[in-house]
Amino acid sequence: MTWQEYLDSRRTESEQELLDFLRIPSISALPAHAADVHRAGEWVAARLSRAGMQNVELMETGGHPVVYADWLHAEDKPTILIYGHFDTQPVDPIELWDNPPFEPVIRERRVYARGASDDKGNMFAPILALDALLKTTEKLPINVKCFFEGQEEIGSPTLPAFIAANREKLACDFVVSADGGQWEEDQPALAIAFKGLCAVQIDVTGPAYDVHSGGYGGAIQNPIHALVSLLDSMRGKDGHILIEGFYERVRPLSAEDRAQIAAVPFNETTYKTKLGIDDVFGEAGYTTLERAWGRPTLELNGIWGGFQGEGTKTVLPSKAHAKITAALLQIRSQGKLSRRSQPTCNATRHPASRSKSMCLKVAPIPT
Ligand SMILES: [Zn+2]
Known about the structure:
Blueprint: H1 3-9, H2 11-22, H3 34-51, E1 54-59, E2 66-71, E3 79-85, E4 105-107, E5 110-112, H4 116-137, E6 143-149, H5 159-165, H6 167-170, E7 174-177, E8 196-205, E9 211-212, H7 213-216, H8 223-232, H9 255-262, H10 268-275, H11 288-294, E10 297-305, E11 315-316, E12 319-328, H12 351-354, E13 359-365
Parallel strand pairs: 3-6, 3-7
Antiparallel strand pairs: 1-2, 2-6, 4-5, 8-12, 8-13, 9-11, 10-12
The site of zinc ion has 5 residues, from α4.
């Protein structure tokens, strides 16, 4: 039997296994579910053993556990480490679910359950692949290590120390993350790099307390106006980011990069329809995918201040705030993906910050 025939012959059984896996409410954020996260780890370990993987181990980390397994008999061949996570996000808001989140249902060939696409279904696929290869050929073409964790959805707090302590055991030539989606239903995707991220919050303070806009308006600076004008100065009308030095060390897209991006099947009309927009927007001279994948970007994520309730309130607020993130790219001077230093916002050089009537604070937000 070939591995394809093996997979086809076990299709119903594999589907049932996935549904069993999805029934475990392994919510890592909620202490009440810690035992369920552990149980999901045990399920993964048992399934890897049945697949024929070796040295299967449920390892304690000081937080939620990790499942390790390997098969290292492909001499002179590289070693890959397959990553995935068996914990899930919480289920709130529960009233928006059509079915209980841990009682999976299949509708029109899709599985609906908490964790189905992030990441239980995805991490189960390589386990099935290992199973099929080991059962039909009794070997793997390369060396494989599995590293499945139970705390991804809470930022993997105990993993840095765990990885440092198990450096040798986890050593590999490259890592394949089974935590991600397909490009399209019939189009698999292999993401080879990710952008870095940095975030800042800007707080602008004007008068020491909220004052009446009728009594003080026009006589003192309004922090919301100052903030909006500051934010507007960060991006040109054509989408180009105007922050000093923002593009300085960014590696330009090569002809090869552009050719590879252009080769990805992408329908801009479908993209616009799905988003409910009439047109795309972005830096001149780049395609939509080049803008999204090959250029650093800066986006306002939130802005608040003053009165937000229904109706009106004649207030000139004391404070205004904004949150900003920048998605950053490989930079020229280093041969690896790197996080730029926090972007030097021209915030501190904006007239608003020099004005004696306004106090400006720009603080990085940990990401
Ligand atoms: Zn995930």
